Amino acid sequence: MSVVIEYQVIGEERLHCAACEARIGSALLRLPGVRNVQASVQSQQISVTLDSAQVSPEQVRARLQQLGYQVAQ
Fold it and tell me: Which end of the chain is more exposed for a tag (fewer CB within 10 A), N or C?
């Protein structure tokens, strides 16, 4: 079942540019079950469409933390 999860970047490390957005998209799309990623420099939000049978929101959060971003759901 596909669900959309919204994450808000809250840590010191922020999204600064299109390269940041692309880096997040590329990293998250490598996770099995992640269907779509939209990261926004303006709103500091990351929207992830995922198949909840294949990947959990916690796994996505863990990948974002590996990239250096602290997020709230």
Answer: N
Is the separation of the CB atoms in 29 and 67 below 8 Å?
no
pTM here? 0.93
Return the CATH class of domain 2-72.
alpha beta
CA-based nearest residue to 46, from 3, 4, 1, 8: 8
Quick check: 19 and 31 in contact, CB under 8 A?
no
How, if at all, do strands 71-72 and 2-9 pair? antiparallel
Give the amino acid at 47: S
pLDDT in tens, 18-39: 999 999 999 999 999 999 999 9
